[in-house]
Amino acid sequence: MFDMDPGDELALVAETARQLAAEELTPREREAEATHEVGGRLRATYHEIGLAGLELPESAGGAGLGSVARVLVNEELAAGDVGAALALDPLGPALYPWLEMGGDLAPLAEVAERRAGRALLVMASEARVQVDAGRVALEAAWVPAEHAEAVVVLAGEHATLVTEGIAIRPLPGSGLRAAGAGELQIDAAASVVLEDAQGAARARARARLYTASLMLGVMRASCEFSQAYAQQREAFGKPIAHHQALAFLITDMRMALDAARLLVHEAAWRLDAGLPAQVEAASALAQCIEAGRSIGPDGVQILGGHGFMADYPVEKQMRELRVLGLLYGGFDAAVEEAGRRLGTRETPLALAPVEER
Amino acid sequence: MEFSVDPAARDRLAELREWGEKEVRPVGLEADRAGCPIPVGHPFFDRCLARGDGRTRWPGPGRKPAGPRMSIVTQLLLAEEFAYWDRGVMIATPGPGLPEQSVLGLGTEEQKERFLGPFLEPDRPRWACFAMTEPGAGSDAAAIQTTARRDRDGWILNGAKCFIGSASRSDWILVQATLDPSKGRKAQRAFFVPQGTPGLGPFKIEKKMGLKAYESTSFSLDDVRVPGAYLLGGDGPREHTAGFKAAMQTFNAGRPVIAANAVGIARAALDEALRYARAHELLGRARVRDRIEAMARKVRMARLVCLRAGQLADQQRANIVEASMSKALAAQVAQEATSEGLEILGLAGGRGDELIEKLYRDAKAMDIVEGTGQIQRMIIARKLVGLPR
């Protein structure tokens, strides 16, 4: 049923990401946030260690790894600085429709090779989109980017690749600023349109896990930071963590994180195993968003007044968790897809080992 | 991590599913409607014996245990499936029950033979039970007041126990008592008290909100005299560690099982809510679909957390945090899922004859028995932030 032993190879990949996050991302997170930029040296390192083409097939010059690898890496990088994690990944979830719906990967592989390249995924549910006679007109109120060489629009069972006529007007951004923030407008010829209902559904599932795993990293960072703080900070003669109200809050935060992670890992494992995972991925994202909506503010709450100040990372984590949950249709679209699919099942959650025999 | 199960376990699960549908749920509903435990002479219990239930895992005198026990993950999946059909009936099922693990782990060979022996090939449905809870000591198990004092070569027990499963029908009760109430857990010991021992009782079968299929019974111990050999672990040198450890051993093994039970109850509510929604053409409503999605998501999550606790135990890795997490989380999920299910039913939820309504009443106990949700959080917090005891 659920095999989540990552094995030595993936453990090494995750460890590499963890090191990069600890040594390069966390120390520079405020600077990257202020400048909306992660810097060329970091981009070079990211490419050199092979993270840029993590899920790109080997035939297209990538490492050809799957969803489990992605969620492990994303959690590690996002625990360091989630904005930087987005900024550094040239393709992000824009790869998935092309990968799952059988598109020619060459244009995306080209983006991945560029040091500062970015391809963006936009879901029809989060933007105003019109696709007529090969032309795409699109407006998205916010994307975590200030430039893009390619945009993939996923609408129902269609995916459209656009490589020209992309305009991004910079915005202040609420979070994820290291990746930039802008309003996206496209009025251009669609270079390629793909149609494949199943592939599109799998692409949506992978995109949801991409975001969900980033949220895991931010939640982990918030939990760890606020927990450590609560063990040091004293009030009324003892560490604040030893007041039961806060001890229980810390416990609930950790419980929410661990439980959400299991959902993400199970869905990723299912995707890699070729099992249906649309419901599982949508539910995993929904749960991460729900957990993030409590863990983010709770992390700030534990630090009290200090938590509200930009001297500590918890306020940034709170903002970033919230806006991460808005990407790719967010909570509502995820719940809608999972709910519709569950409604067609006789027993939505039959005991898996019996069901799958 | 891998939650796979072998073909033998799959067969057992499929078998249990069939048994659950055909026997367990009907008898559970029957007891719920009658408002009292399944009577001792009910033919259901004979069918349990015929099926192979009600027996001890002890292999018999001088024998070594046959083969490896099934994995804890498999046990948890079985516990989930059983509770899916009826958690009360699961507890009512004959057998050496809760104290068996303590007797196997800490009992002398003579005690195993005397007390588990009758469960090897039981001639009739037989029960045994473990009595820890008292009117004044629930979560704070170290505070029990039932006393045990030496009397020549035996022990005299005095006190009162409450909410003890199957007590009035048990062949024997493993009673937790203290040699000195002022000394906390260190002074606690467990004693076998056979049914019919003078001074044991009367038994009062409590009326409950849910889980009516099994009896929860209160009784007193009034100068109950047991032989020295009835002290769990015997009168030898192990005496000093056997008491509280025996109780806690039982509980530590129990937490993920309760979590799995809660998952089973929640899953039953989910299936039932979906069935109702389909039958009443409610799935066109986004709000109903959202509720179904949320229920399914939480049940899946609770199951994974529970299986992870089991898997760590299978790997003989520390699982205190995960076991408590599973119990705290799954109990909460069961309460939410059954409550959401009632919301989908609307007014029909108030009729009193819908399964979800019963599940809603049943589920609450999962956040109370074997350590409340608050106790679980204290255990976790001790590990995470060193919350003092």
Give keywords.
heterodimer; A: 357 residues; alpha+beta; Butyryl-CoA Dehydrogenase, subunit A, domain 3; four-stranded mixed β-sheet; four-stranded antiparallel β-sheet; 10 strands; 55% helix; disordered C terminus; B: 389 residues; 10 helices; globular
SSE topology sketch:
The complex is a heterodimer of chains A (357) and B (389).
Chain A: H1 7-25, H2 29-35, H3 40-48, H4 67-88, H5 95-100, H6 106-113, E1 119-123, E2 128-132, E3 135-143, E4 150-155, E5 158-162, E6 166-170, E7 182-189, E8 192-195, H7 197-232, E9 234-235, E10 238-239, H8 244-272, H9 278-303, H10 305-308, H11 314-324, H12 330-343, H13 352-355
Parallel strand pairs in A: 1-4
Antiparallel strand pairs in A: 2-3, 3-7, 4-5, 5-8, 6-7, 9-10
Helix pairs in contact in A: 1-4, 4-7, 7-8, 7-9, 7-11, 8-9, 9-11, 9-12
Chain B: H1 7-34, H2 43-51, H3 72-92, H4 100-106, H5 109-116, E1 127-131, E2 147-151, E3 154-165, E4 170-178, E5 188-194, E6 200-205, E7 216-227, H6 239-279, H7 286-314, H8 320-345, H9 355-363, H10 373-385
Parallel strand pairs in B: 1-4
Antiparallel strand pairs in B: 2-3, 3-7, 4-5, 6-7
Helix pairs in contact in B: 1-3, 3-6, 3-7, 4-6, 6-7, 6-8, 6-9, 7-8, 8-9, 8-10
- % residues in beta strands of chain B: 5-15%
Largest sheet entry of chain B: 4 strands, antiparallel
Order of helices and strands of chain B: HHHHHEEEEEEEHHHHH
Helix content of chain A: 40-55%
Sequence of secondary-structure elements of chain A:
HHHHHHEEEEEEEEHEEHHHHHH
- Cα(first) to Cα(last) distance of chain A is 10 Å
Highest-level CATH class of the domain at 198-355 in chain A: Mainly Alpha
Based on Cα principal axes, name the global outline of chain B: globular
CATH class type of the domain at 243-385 in chain B? Mainly Alpha
Gross CATH architecture of the domain at 198-355 in chain A:
Up-down Bundle
- Judged by helices, strands and strand pairing, the structural class of chain A is alpha+beta
Beta strand count of chain B: 7
Euclidean distance between termini CA atoms of chain B: 32 Å
**Alpha-carbon Rg of chain A, integer:** 20 Å
Which regions of chain A contain 5 or more consecutive residues with pLDDT less than 50?
351-357
Number of helices of chain B: 10
- Mean pLDDT of chain B, to the nearest integer, reads 91
CATH superfamily of the domain at 198-355 in chain A: Butyryl-CoA Dehydrogenase, subunit A, domain 3
By oligomeric state, this entry counts as: heterodimer
- In the CATH hierarchy, the third-tier topology of the domain at 198-355 in chain A is known as Butyryl-CoA Dehydrogenase, subunit A, domain 3
Interface with most residues: A-B, 46 and 52 residues
